[in-house]
Amino acid sequence: MRDTWTIVWKELKELVVARAGRPLCSAGHLAMLALFGIAAPWWWGRQWLSDSLVFWVWVLLPLPLVIGAAAESFAGERERHTLETLLASPLSDRAILTGKIMAAALFGWLNSVAIQVLGLITVNLVYAADGFIVYAPALGVGSLTLGLLAAALTACIGVLVSLRVTTVRQARLTLTLFIVALGFMVAAAGAVGLHFLPSGSLDRLAAGLSAPSVTASLAVLAFGLLLADAALYFAVTCCFRRTQLLAE
User: What's the number of CA atoms in the CB half-sphere (13 Å) around residue 37?
Assistant: First the structure.
């Protein structure tokens, strides 16, 4: 675990320093903070802390940051000609791989948490006279949990792609196309499913949802993501071969 956290700290430090040295990336990061941490909560008001649409914003918000971080995990090392040095170190294969996956997932998720905190502060400043307001429990806990699991899933996919390509640009393009295609397929499947639902059944289903049923649904979704994370992590560990990477 000590070696793994060494890799995590190294990766996070490099990601922060690299983005700070790119004016365009820094401007985009600040714009995201301003939009989702200040402007949107100020515009939505109390609804920002309880609306189900905001829940999906928090789940999906870390993914673009995770894609960028995961793309640089091994492809970036190749471009900087530091991959051989890393692989020649006494760090274990598991520590290197797990550290890079954890760093990419945490980079996106921690930024999402920071924006969530900014949103909470913004709403409470706007409605200071009403006392302290917090996120709805299902929204807050569910978005943090599913956001982390979705970030880990994206990080595993990203590191797997980064292992196989030679440049960061190629890795980002491949990952972006894959995520867009996956999102399109999920949206298409949902649209087809809704089309074949009997008339009025969606309204009856929404009306019948209670807090326990929503919590149970989120728990099932989280368990499914956890299984997908475990399967992908196993796949990445099977594909990671230090001797092969050194030969390449």
Answer: 15
Q: Provide the phi-psi class of 23: left if phi over 0, else alpha when psi is between -120 and 50, else beta.
A: alpha
Q: DSSP letter for 91, please.
A: -
Contact 61, 36 (CB under 8 A): yes
Sign of the torsion formed by the C-alpha atoms of 100, 102, 107 and 109 = positive
The DSSP secondary-structure symbol of 210 reads -
Give the C-alpha separation, 158 to 79, whole Å: 16
> pTM of the prediction?
0.82
> How many Å apart are CA 163 and CA 159, to the nearest integer?
6
**Could you give the C-alpha distances from 8 to 71, 169, 184, in angstroms and in order?**
15, 22, 32
Rounded to whole angstroms, the Cα distance separating 130 from 133 reads 8
**Which of 168, 226, 169, 8 has its CA nearest to residue 101?**
8
pLDDT in tens, 204-232: 444 444 455 667 777 888 898 899 999 99
Sign of the Cα pseudo-torsion (172, 174, 179, 180, in order): positive
